[in-house]
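Sample intake sheet
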Amino acid sequence: MSNNNFFIQLTAMLHKSKSEQQLKSDAENLGDIPVKLVGHLDTAKTQQAIQKQLNEMGNQTINITTTVNKGAAQNAAKQAVNSAQGIANKNKVSLDFDVNKQKLVNQIKILGRDNDRLFGSQEMAEKYNQLLDSANIANNAKDLKSLRGQLTAFKTELNATNNAGKTWGSSFKDSIQNFTRLFSGASFLYAAVNQTKASAAEAKKSGRQTGRPAEGDG
């Protein structure tokens, strides 16, 4: 049986001009396809080129003219002012609230001090303590307004229930304190007068001993 199979070895050469034409035609048929390129900057040559251009310029003055967008600048300034004003107003409101809150708390405390008779009634004492606690934890102007109304109503209730004013013991204690302050003042004045008289007498005595008239003698 004969063997008709055989191998043919071909050697081909690329037709350069026709290949370039074919590649160009294929590229045009593909349409617009974005191609990303990654390059490397030749730093040394770039520096040389920049330096060469600078040397060619010599001592030249370069004038740069800029255009300021006045409208944008004015808007930016206005926004900055409004922002600062908003912060200032917020701080002022916070400060005013703190002052008013402390004022209300002090008013309630003074009410309790000047009307300690109310603590003889459990009901009045509970209302007073609740009012004071509410004032201490108030956190907005609306709460303060409501508490002021409650304070006014509480004062009216104290008078209506005969719980206003001080107890006999507190009144007596205040009288003793006032008398003590008055007596202390009078004692100081009396001691000062006596000291002045004693100094004058000592001066006269010293003048007679030395043979010279003391001040005040004719």
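Comment: Residues 70-114 form the longest helix (45 residues). The chain is about 70% helix and 0% strand.
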